[in-house]
């Protein structure tokens, strides 16, 4: 509990978590407002309200990476490891705090986007009446939390803010998007790429959308929604385990 309190104080006494939270919420809710206000009749649905979640998720991943890389940049991680010789415990405490914040941001962003869409288009059917609807909205909290774990692991491994942010942005915005164009094997590889897979958990087969285009591209994964989430979680925690092992062995 003491470690968690220390990490919470360290996190929230800097500006980046506050700005990151505000920017992520503004993106998710702003996209929903813009999409709903300009959409044709019949386009607005539960799925369409979550159009901006991927962009907000990217901001949260940057926030998570900065939570650890700034400690390496300013040397405060050395003080932490001197006070807490068990590096794994210290880093797990930070992971718990950061992923909890990410979960809260994901839930607020998703329900905020749904709420603003309901205000703009009160005639649209935005009730959460099925398990798929709830996964599409509330499920963002779980995805944000796991993505934060993954981003923090990248930050531990690279230790430099610019490098960690570059890797995260290039991977999410470029590599996964371009993989399908690789001749012959691109589509098969893309089926198993983590953010493509976790979209299956959120959007499923697209039943939460009025039309297929009303939201991010549907996942090409063949996994069931909950297996897709488990697969994404395994990658996130696998990366974290690798990062903890490296941090335990090398100099701070």
UniProtKB/TrEMBL annotation:
Keyword Transmembrane helix attached: yes
Keyword rRNA-binding: no
UniProt keywords, alphabetically: Membrane, Transmembrane, Transmembrane helix
Ranges that cross the membrane: 18-39, 51-70, 91-121, 141-158, 165-183, 226-247
Superkingdom to which the source organism belongs: Bacteria
Protein name from the UniProt record: ABC-2 type transport system permease protein
Species whose genome carries this gene: Haloechinothrix alba
């Amino acid at each position: 509990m003491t470690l968690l309190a220390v990490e919470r104080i360290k996190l929230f006494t800097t500006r980046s978590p506050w700005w990151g939270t505000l920017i992520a919420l503004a993106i998710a809710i702003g996209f929903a407002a813009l999409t709903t206000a300009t959409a044709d009749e019949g386009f607005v649905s539960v799925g369409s309200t979550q159009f901006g979640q991927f962009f907000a998720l990217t901001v949260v991943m940057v926030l998570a990476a900065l939570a650890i890389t700034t400690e390496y940049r300013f040397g405060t991680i050395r003080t932490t490891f001197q006070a807490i010789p068990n590096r794994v415990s210290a880093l797990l405490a930070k992971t718990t705090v950061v992923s909890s914040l990410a979960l809260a941001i994901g839930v607020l962003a998703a329900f905020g986007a749904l709420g603003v869409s309901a205000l703009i288009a009160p005639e649209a059917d935005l009730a959460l009446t099925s398990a798929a609807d709830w996964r599409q909205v509330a499920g963002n909290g779980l995805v944000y939390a796991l993505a934060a774990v993954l981003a923090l692991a990248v930050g531990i491994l690279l230790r430099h803010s610019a490098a960690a942010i570059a890797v995260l942005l290039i991977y999410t915005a470029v590599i996964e998007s371009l993989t399908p164009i690789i001749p012959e094997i691109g589509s098969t590889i893309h089926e198993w790429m983590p953010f493509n897979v976790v979209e299956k958990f959120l959007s499923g087969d697209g039943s939460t959308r009025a039309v297929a285009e009303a939201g991010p591209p549907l996942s090409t994964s063949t996994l069931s929604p909950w297996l897709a989430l488990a697969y994404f979680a395994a990658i996130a925690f696998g990366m974290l385990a690798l990062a903890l092992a490296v941090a335990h062995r090398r100099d701070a």
